[in-house]
Structures are given as structure tokens and as C-alpha cells.
Amino acid sequence: MISFVDHGPMDFDELRPGQVFEAGPRVIDRSDIDAFTRLSGDRTALHSDDDYARTTPFGAVVAHGVLVLAVGTGLAYDTGIFLGTVLAVRSMELNFERPVFPGDALALRLEVPSKDSQPRIDRGRVSFGVRLTNQHGKAAALGTWTLIMRRSGEATLPPV
Q: Is the pLDDT of residue 20 over 90?
């Protein structure tokens, strides 16, 4: 089991290719799926109708892919490295490898494969390999996030 580890804020200059950060698990329950259905307005039957979902190859309601992504971003924030250091999200690419069912517990693994000192002297681009796994260690989602991060100096912490 991965536990919550707060690494503290890390800016562009502190991050190095090969570094790994982990967080989780976070259990996705049916109330999370129902709340996301209401929030997003996505009432696709696979995510909201038990009778319909039983007729699908999954056999039950599954979490929205975007909910899985959102939980991943929350777990990433839990690592502590992004507090006051992220200026923008450049891209988020994610492939969904298997369904996430109510009761599944997701854990996150981020790895820094590369970074680029562009676009400006006060910031740089950092890519993170993203792996979200379920409680069985099976990949639920894999991808790459590219963020614009502050360069060296004190992180500017958001107001509390």
C-alpha cells in the first residue's frame, strides 16, 4: 500500500528526470460517481443506471474516465510537489486501460521523464509519466501530463 507522502513544493529546478512521486490510495465509491454525474451533467447510462450497466461487458456501473483523471490530479496534489509551483497545465494525455468500479482504490505514480527550460527564464516545462493503478496493482490509466512550473526561488504559496 502506498501512503501519502508530502514531499513539499518542488519547482522546475528541483525536479530531475527519473524522480518518482506516489500518492494514494483513494477509494472511488458510488456516491463519487453519482456526484460526478450531477456535476458534469454526463448521465451516460454506463455511469448512472445499474440495470443498463449490468447488460454491458463491464456488468456494473463504472466511473467516468474524467472522474478517474480528476482523482489523479487530486492525488498528484497530495504529493505536495505542486503547491505554489504549477503555473499552468500544458497538456494531459491519458489512456484508460481498464474500468474503475465503485469500491476500487486508485493509487498514483508520477515519474519525471524529461523537462525543458522553455518557454521563459522564470518557468519551464516538465513532463510527468502518469500511472493510476487499482487495488490489485493493475493499471487503470496511463499517460503523460505536461506542466509549466516555476523556476528556482521560493514557491508562491496560495492563500489559505
A: yes
